[in-house]
Amino acid sequence: MRLLAWLMCVAALAAPLSAKDRLGVYQGWAAFRDPETPRCYAISEPDETIRPPTRAAYVSIGFWPKRSVTHQLYVRLSRDRAANSGVTLSAGGRRFRLKADSNAAWAADRRTDLAIIAAMRSATSLSIETIGRDGRSIVDAYALRGAPSAIDAAALGCAVR
Question: Which long-range CB contacts under 8 A does 98-105 form with residues at least 24 apart?
């Protein structure tokens, strides 16, 4: 119940004042459709964060049918990162360098988005690592149980008809 409440809160923060349809909850992941935008996304909060967070972190996989964008990774970090620090996503024994600003990260291109999602589908966990502005590590770890189902639900929720 707590996770569902948190996921709905994150969804509200991700797109204020827009209606969302819940497509399903799958273990620690949920899928939503925002018909006003329109967009769909699968989203999860970290199971573990090293050091106290300054904001609610999450990983989402988005679908934007009017923009012809699918399977787009977005990560919100639990704390601001140092400007000179890279962000690395690890899943299924693979490591991916992400593009980033002070509090978020994303894949460099569509090919990397798809490679990350393929790694997520065969892994049990995912971690996001960087260095914070304070010089201390930021590590946000996510369980991936339910992620494939949530991603598929989001994809179907925004499938072009």
Answer: 98/73, 98/128, 100/130, 102/133, 103/55, 103/76, 103/77, 103/79, 104/74, 104/75, 104/76, 104/77, 105/74, 105/75, 105/77, 105/130
Q: What is the Cβ-side half-sphere exposure of residue 129, based on CA atoms within 13 angstroms?
A: 9
Q: DSSP letter at 76?
A: E
The structure tokens listed for 140 are 């946000």
The two structure tokens encoding residue 32: 């939503």
Measured N-to-C along each axis, helices 110-122 and 147-157 cross at an angle, to the nearest 10 degrees, of 140
Compute mean pLDDT per 10 residues along the chain, 161 residues long, and list them.
41 49 94 92 92 89 94 96 96 96 96 97 96 94 97 91 56
Instruction: Tell me how far the alpha carbon of residue 55 is from its chain's centroid.
Output: 14
Whole-prediction pTM value? 0.84
